[in-house]
Design brief:
Blueprint: E1 2-7, H1 14-27, E2 32-34, H2 51-61, E3 66-70, H3 79-92, E4 97-102, H4 107-110, H5 120-138, E5 143-145, E6 152-155, E7 166-170, H6 174-180, E8 186-190, H7 194-209, E9 213-222, H8 226-236, H9 244-247, H10 253-259, E10 274-275, H11 278-291, E11 295-300, H12 305-315
Parallel strand pairs: 1-2, 1-11, 2-3, 3-4, 4-7, 7-8, 8-9, 9-10, 9-11
Antiparallel strand pairs: 5-6
């Protein structure tokens, strides 16, 4: 089990986030996962730097491997442009960009470029077609495509890595998990109730995803006390309570704030685990391993990242046995 740090562009400036990933490496995190947002989920979060520009600096300042979300459907990034970014990073930092996780996107990040926001079926079709273009380009092929919204003529990348990253698919439902099992190199999702996660993994594996990579983002709110953790989750990440069908459709942080306005302080713990002790974090990682995930990226939604990283170093990461001797569930010594 790989335990990674999730770098939240939505909450912190790029320069702050660069400091945090360096601290995460010193603490013993084994990898970093990043989001790819134009806007934050809430006006309270207040940031959203360009992920691809930031990744170059982050790789130069650390030695960790990275995984990144990516939206190749032709809104902010045409697949040729995205493949060019991925190839350049991968050539400069061999084997450091381990994967990109491609999704159909959210209006929050893609609508602003003025190219409309079609139905989910159309977005899915464009995602699969875009993944084929990116895979071919990273393989050194010259690509021409007439796919709607993705027109490509004699595209070729001239600076290629020896080994391109895995092209994973991002999924939030078991239906999407089954579909991406057919064409992706693996799956990335976010933590849900254990039964739902098991159903997603099963759907992915049955449709062609057997033996492919499985990565999970686990959102928590850490603080020294439960009341502080609850307040941080409620202030920073109330969007976790927004109904799944709205996640891809709401267009602005203000709309997300309106959609989560009725979430109370008392109920936020139903959506985000509140963590104060290492054993609580280990329980979440063990749960993830039991569902079949190979990689877990911990996203602490509170602002106190240095406190959280110190907590992880002392109470979690220092207690892990070497990865080569770890069984399928997380090995630990208390």
């Amino acid at each position: 089990m790989l335990i990674g740090y999730h770098a939240s562009h939505e909450q912190f400036s790029p320069s702050e986030l660069l400091e945090y990933v360096q601290a995460a490496e010193r603490a013993g995190f084994q990898a970093v996962m990043t989001s790819d947002h134009l806007a934050p989920w809430s006006e309270r979060q207040g940031n959203s730097g360009n992920n691809w520009a930031w990744l170059g600096a982050a790789m130069a300042k650390t030695s960790l491997p990275f995984g990144s979300l990516a939206i190749p459907g032709g809104w902010r990034y045409h697949p040729v442009v995205l493949a060019h970014l991925v190839a350049t990073l991968s050539e400069m930092f061999p084997d450091r960009l381990r994967w990109i996780a491609m999704g159909s996107g959210e209006a929050l990040n893609e609508y602003a470029v003025g190219r409309g926001w079609p139905a989910k079926t159309v977005r899915n079709a464009r995602l699969e077609a875009a993944s084929e273009i990116i895979r071919a380009l990273l393989g050194g092929e010259t690509v021409t495509s007439d796919e709607p919204g993705l027109k490509t003529e004699d595209a070729k990348l001239w600076s290629l890595p020896e080994k391109p990253p895995l092209l994973l698919g991002a999924a939030l439902t078991k239906q999407t998990a089954a579909w991406i099992g057919e064409w992706a190199d693996g799956m990335v999702t976010v933590r849900k109730p254990m039964d739902e996660m098991k159903q997603m993994v099963e759907a992915f594996r049955k449709s062609g995803g057997a033996k492919k990579s499985l990565a999970l983002q686990v959102q928590v709110s850490w603080a020294p006390t439960i009341d502080e953790a609850r307040m941080a989750a409620w202030h920073e990440w109330r969007n976790a309570a927004v109904k799944p069908h709205l996640l891809a459709e709401l267009k602005t942080p203000a709309e997300f704030d309106a959609a989560s306005r009725e979430v109370t302080l008392e109920e936020i713990g139903n959506f985000i685990p509140l963590i104060t002790r290492g054993t609580e974090l280990f329980d979440l990682v063990d749960e993830s391993a039991a569902c079949g995930f190979d990689e877990v990226y911990i996203h602490n939604v509170s602002r106190d990242q240095h406190g959280f990283i110190g907590f992880m170093a002392e109470q979690v990461l220092s207690k892990l046995k070497p990865r080569s001797t770890m069984p399928s569930s997380v090995a630990r010594d208390f």
